[in-house]
Structures are given as C-alpha cells and as structure tokens.
Amino acid sequence: MRAGASAAAQETAATIAAARALRTGTVSTPPVSPEVKVLFNPDDRTAVYIVPGMIGLILTLVGCLLTAIVIVREREMGTMEGLIATPVRPLEVVLGKITPYFVFGLIDAVLVVLAGVLVFRVPFQGSPLLLAGAMLLFILGSLGVGIVISTFVRTQIQSVFWIIAYFFPSIFLSGLFFPLEGMVQPFGFISQFVPLRHFLELARGVMIRGADLSHLATPMLALALFSAATLLIANFRFRKTL
C-alpha cells in the first residue's frame, strides 16, 4: 500500500511536469516530491498487525467450535434431554454449558494480549477496558453461533464442518491477512456482515492507534448487535429443538 501511494504520487507529479513543459516549452522538475510518513507501525512489523487478529481467531474457535461440539456430544449421549426434563430451564442448561468456555476464551485472549505486548513488543496505546468490552461482546456472539450450529446438526463431525464453513470465510473477509480496501465491491459489502472484521477494527484501533470509543462506536455497535442477535436465535432454537 505504501509503495502504491508513492508510485501514484510520482506518476501524478510526472504528469503535471509534462503538461507544464508542453505549455511553456521548458523542462521543469516535478512540482511534487512524495514523502510517505507512517503514523502507526512505522517499522512495518508483521506482529503488530497480526497479534490483534489472533485474539479474534482464538475467541472464534473457543466460542464456536468447543460449544457446538460439547452440546452435540451431550445430545448424542442422551444427557441433554435428561437435563431438560428436570425443573432447570433450557436457558439455564445452556448457560451452564457455555460458561466454562466463556471464561476459558477470556483467559486465552488475555494471554495472547500479554504475549503480544511483552514478547512481540506490540504497542498498546488505548484503553484496556474498551478492548475487554469488545472481547466480551465478541465471545458472547461466538458462543451464540456455536449453540445455533449445535441445533442444526446431529453429530460432532457435522458440527466441525459447519464451524469450518463459518470460520474460513471470516478469516478471508475480515481483513486479517488481506486489506479490505483491495477487495472487489461485492466482497467488500459482504465483509460488513463478518463479525471478525468489526472485532479487528476495534482491537487494532485500541492497541495500535490508541483510539477511543468515539472513533470506534460503529464496530462496537456492530459487535453488540451480533452478540444480541446470536444469543436470541440460540435461545429460540434451543427451546424449539430440544
């Protein structure tokens, strides 16, 4: 991206100089001297860009994969129906199943942040509370996705394939490895519905740029809607199917 901007500036400067030479009949030096100044990650270190994305990947895997597999396994063993036959409400059963993975995902995310800051020297410029709020919303939404998937499948193998179908498009359409600005328009529009994209905007904004909530209100709202929608659907589907 930096090389492209520099090349575009040089091409524009050469075009202006050529037009001026044709008009005046004299040869002049280009009036624009491009100079690229990197405000964030000036050393162009890969770890600074990747570590915030690893937080989202871990939360996605823990929230979706483990939750879906555990609930499907309980159904295969017949214990889930037994639990629901008790006075315990279905929502309470689900909360009891997903709470350990919620805590486990948060612990893993904190460890990744600490490793990124202490080992890979990733800067942390913003508010830890803002990043923690983003992680809470994202993992709640991921847990909801796992529950929803578990209501559509009957075996653990099927749940793994559904998670793969959800996971890989999220990687390639979130901006984790490929810049969103370089995507063609249809994929750029579809990426607006990828929760990992909004989490990455928040994580990178907080850690690298030190942005506050006023600059990250849109991705935070998107994560809140994602979390609320998936949990509501999960509650509805769980009651209807089990």
Report on the structure:
- By secondary structure, the protein is an all-alpha fold.
- It has 2 domains: 1-37, no CATH class; 43-241, no CATH class.
- It has 9 helices and no strands.
- It has helices at 2-24, 46-77, 79-85, 90-118, 128-150, 156-172, 185-190, 195-209, 217-241.
- Helix 5 (128-150) runs antiparallel to helix 8.
- The longest helix is centred in the N-terminal third of the chain and has 32 residues, at 46-77.
- The N and C termini lie far apart (51 Å).
- Belongs to the ABC-2 integral membrane protein family.
Number of domains: 2
**Broad shape:** elongated
- The gyration radius over C-alpha positions equals 24 Å
How much strand content do the residues show?
under 5%
Q: Secondary-structure element sequence?
A: HHHHHHHHH
Largest sheet: none
Describe the structure concisely for a colleague:
The protein is built from nine helices and no strands. The chain is mostly helical. The chain has two domains: 1-37, no CATH class; 43-241, no CATH class.
Brief descriptors of the model:
73% helix; single chain; mainly alpha; 242 residues
Summarize the helices and strands and which ones pair or pack:
Elements: H1 2-24, H2 46-77, H3 79-85, H4 90-118, H5 128-150, H6 156-172, H7 185-190, H8 195-209, H9 217-241
